[in-house]
Write a structure and sequence with these properties.
Blueprint (H helix, E strand, L loop, with lengths): L1 H11 L14 H15 L9 E4 L3 H8 L8 E4 L2 H10 L4 E5 L7 H12 L7 E5 L4 H10 L3 E4 L4 H9 L14 H11 L4 H8 L3 H15 L4 H12 L5
Parallel strand pairs: 1-2, 1-3, 3-4, 4-5
Length: 239
């Protein structure tokens, strides 16, 4: 009975996702603050980059590199995998991803990014998205505590946005939980709610409830709206 009460309390508090558990280790956040202050105060180029940038846009990369400190301490990569390898060497660096340069479906990229922003060492992630790409902006903002920035911001505004460092926020009422994200992935693959219930070994009514939560967080009213959105963002980008 006591175990059941504890499990219910855990479910009620929304702690079914490890990524939303309160972490007692905030070292990476304070490491970034220390690095930022050191980069501004010293003239010598530090060994550790302030930003790890993923983009195919050489103009964007050059613009950031020619910005003021600490933005000029930037390393650019063509793929997300190579950027993850760099973050293992420089865990205090901030990851900036140009969504326009992705080579995989958006939901697959966001799944990879959720794993590093919701779990230790809680790497700060900024996503550059076109202002007119409403579907992508909507999904990015609800997928996790990402810093979503407009790609067309003026140079000064973009530099200020990339330099700013805020404490990580875990707001379970805004971001998808682990279960909701899994359901969203299944739906993007064309699975029905009944099949998802079988795969997850959950009651069908529970899957319907989770679907309602997903629609609410996305600001949608009908399941068809969600399916159309998933179809649009699940397409691999053409280069």
């Amino acid at each position: 009975m006591r175990m059941t009460v504890r499990r219910y309390r855990r479910r009620r508090q929304g702690s079914d996702s490890l990524g939303f558990s309160q972490s007692h280790s905030s070292a990476p956040f304070f490491d970034r603050l220390v690095y930022l202050s050191q980069s501004i105060n010293q003239t010598r180029r530090p060994d550790t980059p302030f930003i790890v940038l993923v983009t195919h846009d050489h103009f964007l990369y050059a613009g950031i590199q020619r910005g003021p400190a600490p933005l000029r301490h930037c390393c650019g990569y063509d793929t997300l995998e190579s950027a993850f390898s760099a973050l293992e060497t420089w865990p205090s660096a901030r990851l900036v991803v140009d969504i326009e340069s992705r080579t995989m479906p958006l939901i697959q990229m966001l799944d990879m990014l959720r794993r590093i922003i919701l779990y230790p060492p809680f790497t700060a992630v900024s996503l550059l998205v076109r202002a007119d790409d409403y579907d992508t902006r909507l999904l990015c903002k609800t997928s996790g505590p990402f810093d979503v920035l407009e790609r067309q911001l003026p140079a000064l505004a973009l530099q200020q946005a990339l330099t700013a460092i805020s404490a990580p926020v875990n707001n379970r009422s805004i971001y998808f939980s682990r279960e909701e994200w899994t359901i969203l992935q299944y739906l993007s693959q064309g699975e029905s709610l009944r099949n998802i219930a079988l795969f997850r070994q959950r009651p069908y009514s529970r899957i319907v409830y989770r679907l309602g939560r997903i629609l609410s967080k996305l600001g949608l009213h009908h399941r068809q709206e969600l399916l159309h959105l998933l179809h649009r963002i699940s397409l691999s980008p053409t280069r």
